[in-house]
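RECORD TYPE: inverse folding
INPUT: structure tokens
STRUCTURE:
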């Protein structure tokens, strides 16, 4: 099963996002504290990281740079934030992120972007059979 690590300080956003992604068979991991990141990247090996840019006390860009230092293999980062589009795109360039999703997009858009990023990084075999062909909606 493909794994997505959510880095967001909002429990409401984490809960809603978890529900959306688990509905398509993804395993969702949630970063509880900054100190857990090295262990999660090493032991849980997420297939993608969904990263909020608005984290109190530490910028999303700093978190993203730390993800890059902790990863044991390339892990796609998807910027997931309510910041203006130009800020999201600048952060994506800085972190070499593979996707940008504005918070508040329809559920199917979020699912499609996350699933496409994971698939495009060679993780097809971890998807439930129904989703390997390219559909990110429950059939």
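DESIGNED SEQUENCE:
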């Amino acid at each position: 099963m493909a794994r997505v690590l959510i880095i967001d300080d909002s429990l409401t956003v984490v809960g809603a996002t978890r529900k959306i992604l688990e509905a398509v068979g993804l395993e969702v991991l949630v970063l509880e504290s900054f100190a857990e990141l090295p262990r999660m990247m090493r032991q849980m090996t997420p297939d993608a990281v969904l990263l909020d840019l608005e984290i109190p006390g530490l910028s999303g860009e700093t978190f993203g740079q730390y993800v890059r230092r902790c990863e044991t293999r390339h892990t796609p980062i998807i910027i997931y934030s309510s910041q203006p589009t130009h800020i999201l795109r600048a952060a994506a360039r800085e972190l070499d992120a593979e996707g940008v999703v504005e918070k508040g997009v329809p559920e199917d858009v979020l699912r499609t972007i996350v699933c496409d990023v994971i698939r495009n990084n060679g993780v097809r075999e971890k998807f439930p059979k129904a989703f390997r062909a390219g559909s990110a909606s429950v059939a």
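NOTES: The domain at 3-124 is CATH 3.40.50.2300 (Rossmann fold).
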